[in-house]
Every structure is written in structure tokens, then in C-alpha cells.
Design a protein that fits this description.
By secondary structure, the protein is mostly beta strands. It has one domain: Rieske [2Fe-2S] iron-sulphur domain (Rieske Iron-sulfur Protein, 3-layer Sandwich). Helices cover 4% and strands 42% of the residues. InterPro entries: Rieske-like_NirD, Rieske_2Fe-2S, Rieske_2Fe-2S_sf.
């Protein structure tokens, strides 16, 4: 991983992230779950389920732009982090950008989450 002056950290090439499979990367001691959707958009969140009992987000099942948590039967919108009704909560999403085939995670945001 390399750091850039605008507080984004490179976590690898887009092709290293499998479609619809969560992958955990570590930045500054924090686990970040990275998800590549079937349309090649990439989203990232702190790897902590917003359910009161917690658990990893990266093990969820991706379909469309939703993450399905098989442990608690929750549906989370990866574009916003919002847990879908009837459940409530919000995953802590982290900014992502793609440049020159590389995935960059907004490390500056990790200081506040």
C-alpha cells in the first residue's frame, strides 16, 4: 500500500478484487471491507457490522448494490451504508476512488470513524 498526499491509500489493482466478493484490507490498524460490484463500481466500509452484536461485513453476500448479511438477515445498501427496513442502522462507509486501474481508500476518513 502506498500513501498519496491527499490522504488516499492505494490498496491494489481493481482486478485484485473479485466481483461480488468482499475482501479485507488493513489501513492504519483498521480493517476495511472492500466490495467490487458486477458493474465494477467499488465500495468500502469499516469491516464492522452495524448490528448490535457486530461481526464482519466482508463475509456478506453482494447482489446488485446491496450486501446481504446471512448471520442477521440484514440488507445493507453499499451506496449509502444504510440498513434496509424493517431493520435500522448504518455501516461506516469509507471513500473510494479508482485511478489508473488502482483502488484508493480515503484514509483521512478513517480518523473520524
Amino acid at each position: 500500500m502506498t500513501k498519496e498526499n491527499n490522504e488516499f491509500i492505494s490498496v491494489g489493482a481493481v482486478d485484485h478484487f473479485l466481483v461480488q466478493i468482499g475482501r479485507v484490507v488493513e489501513i492504519g490498524g483498521r480493517q476495511i471491507a472492500v466490495f467490487r460490484l458486477s458493474d465494477n463500481r467499488i465500495f468500502a466500509a469499516v469491516n464492522k457490522n452495524p448490528h448490535p452484536k457486530g461481526g464482519p461485513l466482508a463475509e456478506g453476500i453482494v447482489s446488485g448494490h446491496y450486501l446481504y448479511d446471512p448471520l442477521y438477515d440484514w440488507k445493507i445498501d453499499l451506496t449509502t451504508g444504510l440498513v434496509q427496513a424493517p431493520d435500522t442502522g448504518q455501516a461506516q462507509m469509507v471513500p473510494v476512488k479508482i485511478e489508473d486501474g488502482q483502488v484508493w481508500i480515503g484514509a483521512g476518513e478513517l480518523q473520524t470513524v
